[in-house]
Amino acid sequence: MQDREQLERLLTVGYPCLSICTLEEDYALALVRETAVLLNRRLWLWTATHGLHDGLIRGGRVIGGTDSPGAALAHLAELRDGSITAFLDLAPHLSDARTLRSLRSLVAQLTEADRQLVLIDYASELPPVLAAVATPVELHPPRDAEIESLIRDTLRRAHRESPIEIDIRRGTLDLITRNLQGLTRRQIELVIRDVVVSDRRFDDADLNHVLAQKRRLLNRGGLLEHVETPVSLDAIGGLRRLKAWLRERDGALGEAGRAFGLPTPRGVLLLGVQGAGKSLSAKAIATAWNRPLLRLDAGVLYDRYVGESERRLREALRQAEAMSPAVLWIDEIEKAFASAAVRSADGGLSQRMFATLLTWMQERDAPVFLVATANDIDALPPELLRKGRFDEIFFVDLPARDVRREILCIHLRNRQRDPQAFDLDRLATTSEGCSGAEIEQAVLTGLHAAFAAKRELSTEDLVAALSASPPLSVVMAERIAALRAWAATRCRPAD
């Protein structure tokens, strides 16, 4: 309803040319048709395969010789019927100078007429030269009420084909509805049909199926990766201050927090030593807050075509907002925007990408909690560290002795071993200077050694694995010392 009212208002006001860039062509075209009927306007539809034809009546009038966009635009210039014309996928044809000129001339003519154009393009952008004459129309992704309606309609249609048994609790339906946010309307219908097609049931057990299908659809898109998050905060050793901070703000996420006057938590920057648990923390945050974790891989954003990289970043951020409430994870953010802090040879692309991210961080309203991790402070643009970008900047250091003991216990339990069967004090001492990742690797190395020798894992196996190579604190001593000195007065300790 919100989208239809927006389109009706723009057409009623008289904007000569509207531009809709969307992945949901069927939905956009249905809106245009519905609005044309409400306004009692004739609708023409142009496609490269059928040319200009009646947009409301199937099998209606077809205007011959208008397969090319130039011919269609020339014909429209002669019409005086007060119509709306929807063009599907016109943007690729605008690389032709004659077609672009014809469109601009027609739009200028329509400014003083009662006819209008609606350009519907599939995840593309019109040439910048048209920005002044084509008014963008942003369609809203489906939210809870519409998603639930789509679920019910899809189940109703499937039930008419073959009976379906529905036995689902209200709470589970709400979770399924929330987890379908971020998908298109067509994708939601396909997911629900896929869920019920095998057993002709829709019940509480289908929640995991829905999540799996959503991950598959999102990961296929390539901009955002839906990451599984079985990790809990208790599965991470140390980081006591960070955990306390997260638990304190957990209650601020809902309506009660907003009613109390609390702002929605915006994000954290986790700065620190490699392998200390920053990435694991991002996963644990999503689990603790019961939110989907979306990983933004900057590598897939960059494209050789001018403007495409920025468009991909905007689309990724739009998808994250559509799936809110969610946790957006940018791992090693300094590498993602490596040239933003220095003069680069990329024509300013990194700076523009970084500026797009900063603008979104500052202006977003959607409850998307940003978790950014970084290892190298020298590569971080200073604008990222300004107050207000993140709620807090935490420094994740190498684990202290008691934390190393805790980490050892966690990894031994994960491998079905009783920590009390090992000399934990000796292992905590031997692992001095090791990161959490190095301790985990030592447990795996010890297991391999014990398995090869056909005996049970022992303390000696772990001591040998921990002593086999110098820890990160030795290999990168100077860099870690500089990082600690920088963080001492600028960051909050995570532990």
* Mean pLDDT, all residues: 85
CATH topology of the largest domain: Rossmann fold
Q: Given this structure, which CATH class of the largest domain is correct?
A: Alpha Beta
Tell me the number of structural domains: 4
Inertia-based shape: elongated
Number of strands: 16
Question: What summary fits the major beta sheet?
Answer: 7 strands, mixed
Strand content: 5-15%
Number of helices, counting only DSSP H or I runs of 4 residues or more: 20
The portion of residues assigned to helices is 40-55%
CATH architecture call of the largest domain: 3-Layer(aba) Sandwich
Query: Which structural class matches the secondary elements?
Result: alpha/beta
Tell me the CATH superfamily of the largest domain.
P-loop containing nucleotide triphosphate hydrolases
Q: What Rg is obtained from the alpha carbons, in whole angstroms?
A: 28 Å
Low-confidence stretches: none
Characterize the quaternary organization of these chains.
Answer: single chain
CA(first)-CA(last) distance: 49 Å
Topology:
Blueprint: H1 2-13, E1 17-22, H2 25-38, E2 43-47, E3 51-54, E4 62-63, H3 69-78, E5 84-88, H4 97-110, E6 116-122, E7 135-136, H5 144-161, E8 165-167, H6 170-179, H7 185-197, E9 201-203, H8 206-221, E10 224-227, H9 240-250, H10 255-259, E11 267-272, H11 278-288, E12 293-296, H12 308-322, E13 326-330, H13 333-336, H14 349-363, E14 368-374, E15 392-396, H15 401-414, H16 424-430, H17 436-452, H18 459-467, H19 472-475, H20 477-487, E16 492-493
Parallel strand pairs: 1-6, 1-7, 2-5, 5-6, 8-9, 11-14, 11-15, 12-13, 13-14, 15-16
Antiparallel strand pairs: 2-3, 3-4, 10-12
